[in-house]
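I am still getting used to backbone structure tokens and would like to learn alongside you. Would you supply a protein for us yourself, any chain you care to pick? Start from the sequence, derive the backbone structure tokens from it, and show both lines together. Go ahead whenever you are ready, and we will take it from there.
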Amino acid sequence: MTPGVSGEASALVLYVREGCHLCDMFLIDLELDLADTGTLLTVVDVDGDPALAIEFGLRVPVLTRSGTVICEGHYESPRVRGALQV
């Protein structure tokens, strides 16, 4: 999975697992919602780092901003837009 949103206004980190259909759906919804916001999105596969794999376990997808969880499991547009003030 690769990020499709770029910019410098506000950075988000989406923690995912390769092959996770919930993660794929979350990423699509997120990219559609943020397409015109100038938000930088970093997508991290938790299985690429043993510490992240332990930390997140089956708790993916998880979207954070500055280390604070915005939403997890399913995409919540109002929470994301509120966190980004867009």
Q: What stands out?
A: The two ends are 25 Å apart (CA to CA). DSSP finds three helices and four strands in the chain.
